[in-house]
Write a structure and sequence with these properties.
Order of helices and strands: EEEEEEHHEHEEHEEEEHHEEHEHEH
CATH architecture of the largest domain: 2-Layer Sandwich
Number of domains: 2
Mean pLDDT: 90
CATH class of the largest domain: Alpha Beta
Helix content: 25-40%
Shape: flat
Number of strands: 17
CATH topology of the largest domain: Nucleotidyltransferase, domain 5
Oligomer: single chain
Number of helices: 9
Largest sheet: 9 strands, mixed
């Protein structure tokens, strides 16, 4: 299997061929409802004698918080998310993988050594209600996350070059994640260090501000987990019992403020970005700020399913590397 994996602070994304996985990066010690009609949807992973519940079901019934520090990479929780992603892509009892894993631009140099040490080789895990799975990671590459957009446009799912223009031109990527916003500049398939950077005011900054608002005005609602509050932000509403609370007056000024910061940061580094052939906008935050970026940078493009663009590009790169090795 050729697999692309992007374990983000907000969501875990993985792609292999035409299969994909997307679920909240929320892990809690496994718990079980006394009665449930949707227990088969639960993603519970056992590995090394430890049990982890993750994804939507963990958000619904688990206890704990999201991780939002770079130190979580390589922890048992982070590894469990990776196993959860693999279990979504295949039910095979034994399989081999060529994997490409994306890491945050700001933490790439520190994290890549950790990931290479713990991911290469053999892994064993069991998903609830399934047989044990054995995975051998034969080849592994780590890639800065925003690079997935370039690889997604450059290659087909089988790893063939489909857009050779990218090898000759300058491209920019704005990757709006939960914790970070990555600004990557690429010229002829090499990134440009002095034109690339990462900031720490992503989409989840809005969530934290709304939580503070709820603490002050609806303290019981502040008990909601981060992913639940983010869902409320997208809908612009939350319920206090059966009473609807309109979040638009709180959310929309915050979105405007952060959107302007994204534009300002890009402008500081790239000017009008006219030296780039195109600006690719990816990440879950592209759904929120993509239209604003396109208004400012007329040659900006929001890639399809922007939250999956990195993982999709990494999977294509894994196929490309496998094809070259053969």
């Amino acid at each position: 299997m050729n697999i692309g994996i992007d374990v983000g602070f907000a969501y875990t994304k993985a792609v292999s061929g035409d299969r994909s996985a997307l679920f909240p990066s929320f892990v809690t010690p496994t718990v079980q409802s006394l009665f449930s009609m949707n227990h088969r949807n639960a993603m519970a992973i056992e590995t090394g004698g430890e049990f982890f519940l993750m994804g939507e079901h963990a958000v619904s019934i688990g206890q704990g918080t999201r991780k939002e520090t770079s130190a979580w990479v390589g922890t048992p929780e982070w590894l469990a998310l990776l196993y959860g992603a693999l279990s979504e892509l295949t039910k095979s009892s034994n399989f081999e993988a060529n994997a490409v894993i994306g890491l945050p631009l700001a933490d790439f140099e520190n994290q890549k050594r950790i990931v290479l040490e713990i991911i290469r080789g053999k892994h064993t895990f069991t998903r609830k209600d399934r047989a044990m799975q054995h995975c051998t990671v034969r080849e592994l590459r780590t890639v800065p996350q925003a690079w997935g957009a370039v690889l997604d446009q450059l290659l087909t799912l089988s790893g063939k070059v489909q857009n050779a223009t990218l090898a000759r031109e300058r491209y920019a990527i704005i990757d709006i994640g939960g914790r970070n916003v990555g600004y990557l500049a690429v010229d002829g398939l090499s990134d440009i260090p002095h034109e690339s950077r990462s900031t720490e005011r992503g989409a989840w900054t809005v969530m934290r501000a709304v939580r503070m608002y709820l603490v002050g005005h609806y303290p019981d609602l502040a008990r909601h987990k981060d992913h639940a509050i983010m869902d409320a932000i997208i809908k612009r509403e939350i319920y206090d019992g059966d009473k609807r609370v309109d979040l638009a007056p709180i959310v929309e000024p915050l979105i405007d403020q952060i959107g302007q910061q994204i534009i300002d940061t890009a402008g500081q580094h790239w000017g009008g970005a006219r030296t780039f052939r195109q600006v690719f906008v990816i990440g879950g935050g592209a759904h929120i700020w993509g239209d604003l970026i396109k208004k400012v940078f007329s040659h900006a493009v929001v890639l399809p399913e922007p939250e999956m663009a990195n993982a999709r590009g990494f999977a294509k790169f894994a196929a490309y590397l496998a094809d070259r090795s053969e």
